[in-house]
C-alpha cells in the first residue's frame, strides 16, 4: 500500500502545507532559549493548538514540533536522553489532531539538522549522524507520523545520512534544504545539485525542495532552479512570510497574508506540488493561501521579473549557479516547457 502523502499527491494538483512552528510557539509564550520540543510533554494543549491552527486554516499537511529533536540538539538542553519520549509525544499529539480533522491530513515528522558539521570538514561521522536520525525517526514512527520530513538542511552529507536513517526506520520521507547564501545553502549546494542528488541516493524522497531562506522571491527562484533540471519528482516550496525585521526589540516578518497568498499561487505556477510557509507564517497567512490556491486558476510559469514585481526584489543577483546569468535560465527554460 502506498503512503498517504503519495496518494494525496495523486489526487490533487497541489497540497497546502503548514506554516511556522517556532515563531507561532513564541507567540504562545515559549520563552526565548527554551527548546520547543520540551513543550510536547509540558504544554501538550498548546502543541495541539499549534497543530489545529494549521488544520483549521485548510492545510493538507502539517509538521510535528520535533525539528530539534535529535540527540545533538537536545544535548544543548541536557535532554539528550529524552529523544524518544519527546518525538513520540509530538507525533502522538499530531496524530490526534489529524484524526479529528474529518478529512485526510498528512502528519509529517519534522527532522532538522544536527547542528554539527560532518566529516571531512567537521567531526560528525556518517555513522553517528545515521544513528541520531534513526533514533528520532523510530520515535516519530511509533507516534504515528505518515512521513518523515527533513528540513532546513545545508549539507549533502547530512541529507544522505537522513535518507539512510529513514530507510532503516521504514518511513517514507520528504526533504528540503535552505538556500540562504546567494542562492546556495550555507555549505554551497545549488538548486541544480539538490535536484540531481535526490535521484542518485538509494532511498530517494517522495518530494524535495526548499524551505526558509531569504524570502519568498528567492525561494521561488530556487524552485525554478529545480524545475530547470527537468525533475519529475514533486517539488516543495515552504518560504518565510517575508523578511524578518526588528520591531520594539522583537523579530517580526513583514509578509502580509495577501503577499503570502500571491506567493502560494506563484509557487504552484512555478511547478511546486506542496506549498507552505516557514518562519513568520501564521494560520491567518495559511487561510489566505488556501483561498488563493482554491480560487485562482493556474497560470503560466512566472518569469523572474514577475516574481520580483509581485513579491519583492531578490537578495542576490543570481541563483547560486556558476555564473550570474544562471538566474535567468530557469525562468526561460521553464516558460518554454510550460507552453509546450
Structural commentary:
- This protein has 340 residues and is α/β, with parallel strands linked by helices.
- The chain has 14 helices and 10 strands.
- Helices cover 45% and strands 14% of the residues.
- The strands form 2 sheets. An 8-stranded parallel sheet has the order 1-10-7-6-5-4-3-2. Strands 8-9 form a two-stranded antiparallel sheet.
- Helix 9 (191-197) links the parallel strand 5 and strand 6 (207-212).
- Helix 7 (126-143) packs across helix 8 (156-169).
- The protein is globular.
- 53% of the residues are buried.
Summed over residues and divided by their number, the pLDDT gives a mean of: 92
Q: Which regions contain 5 or more consecutive residues with pLDDT less than 50?
A: 323-340
Side by side, the strands of the main sheet go 1-10-7-6-5-4-3-2
Biggest sheet features: 8 strands, parallel
Number of strands: 10
N/C terminus separation: 34 Å
Oligomeric description of these chains: single chain
Series of secondary-structure elements, N-terminal to C-terminal: HEHHHEHHEHEHEHEHEEEHEHHH
Assess the beta-strand content as a share of residues. 5-15%
Discrete helix count:
14
User: What is the rounded Rg?
Assistant: 19 Å
Helix content: 40-55%
| Helix/strand class | alpha/beta
Gross geometry: globular
